[in-house]
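Changelog note: in this version the structure field was regenerated for every chain. One regenerated record is shown below for reference.
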Amino acid sequence: MEFPYGQDPGAPVRSGIPEHGRIPKYYAAKVDLAALLEELGEGGVLPTERELAQRFEVSRETLRQALRELILEGRLRRAGRGTVVAGPKMAQPLSLASYTEGVRDQGREPGRHLVSLDRFRCPPALAADLGLAEGDAVWHMERVLLADDERVGLESTYVAVERVPDLATDFPPDSSFYAYLRRHLGIDFGDADERLETVLATPREALLIGTPGALPMLLIHRLSRDTAGRPLERVRSLYRGDRFSFTTHLGGGGAGG
């Protein structure tokens, strides 16, 4: 199959040029910048805004709009007082594999930093999700997600105290929760329901993850069950949109259209 205008199948048709053919100045500058990023390679330092504006014959404000879009897309990142070419996004599978496994598959070292571990009485909505009675004891564990010591996300886990009574004393919070359940408690995951959406981080979340408040985030809600079908955990995972993409495998013989 030939793709329109010779484009790679993953690229926008006609590189995003409107059908009327009039290209916004910022977008033309963005295309020129993208070509420069290819030349510089990962970690390459961009020239100053003044130099780039002169090079591409655009105003500083037009250039800044192009730079902002490339930063939001994860192709550039701020480093000190400069801007450098970012590495590729991490592709996290939408599966029962843990965050640890997904990041290691990308050749990076996963980690977590504990923000809080609290015990509280379960409210009605959460009780319904976890198959508990209202007021039953529940753990809430909040952790910053790391990849090679870079803050890339924020995870909130809710689990019944009766399922993991010694979480506060026996679980190393910088390790995989799934591995802990499997190795120490003999609990295996059976299936899960997930919902994926895009959101903006709250000011608190942006501060914990270390991102601008305007950066789009990928939010996953997950309700997991064990192999007996019993609800196990409710998880809210927030990932940086400029550092992550998600993949899944689709099977079956249904006709598309």
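Spot check on this record: Residues 1-9 have pLDDT under 50 and may be disordered. Helices lie at 25-40, 49-56, 60-72, 99-105, 124-130, 167-170, 177-185, 203-209.
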